[in-house]
Predict the structure.
Amino acid sequence: MTETQERETELVVGTIGGITQKKADTWTVAVSPDGSQYAKNLWTKDADLVESLSAKLGQIGAFVCGASYWSKDGKQIAFESSRDAVDPFDPTGTDVYVMNADGTQVTRITDGPGYDGRPSWSADGKQIAFESNRATATTFDVYVVSVGDRRVTRVTYLDLSEGVQPSWSPGGKQITFANYDVFVVNADGTQLTQLTTGAPNSSPSWMDGGKKIVFTNFLENAEIYSMNADGTGVTRLTYNPLIDTYPSGDR
């Protein structure tokens, strides 16, 4: 059994400033639209710690939960999980789920072959963009699923080698994603535009109401940068000898 397989993953929600924990590793953090709450994933082998944190913060997830994102109205959370897979540690069993912010009404939204993850809500809350390798098992593209009828639509046909981490624009018309470079595409798959060149980039997110995009750049170190939505005005925001990544712009 590997180090990762010895650990359990819990998705918990807490109030900003309500608790500080040091023993569990935090994978991703998502802040609610009003800035008062957060959802984060804790990796730990300490069952007592998970139980303690869950009691204090309010456990809303289950075994093996990944990246989580709040809906724009703050009422729901979309997250990736392999909770229903035969082998919960097999990433090909990962799907997108939605639940109320209090942990009720957990609903599986995708159920396709391969990995479905990194969900991002549309502005109206009716659709979720996600990354998936369901078409080839070895390459990734951007997909959109309708929350109501769970109909899945493929947005890009790039067959990229790694995950693309999509992020839906506040206006609902565009999706930004990254695979070495940062791209923008209309939600219907038209007008694909490459915004960056020359260095590995990841985890883009919209900010300033869709006027800018914040992202991670790995040219010198993992640092946070921002740029205008058309790719101009690239600005470095962090200067840290360690790792800065997964920025969150507009909530």
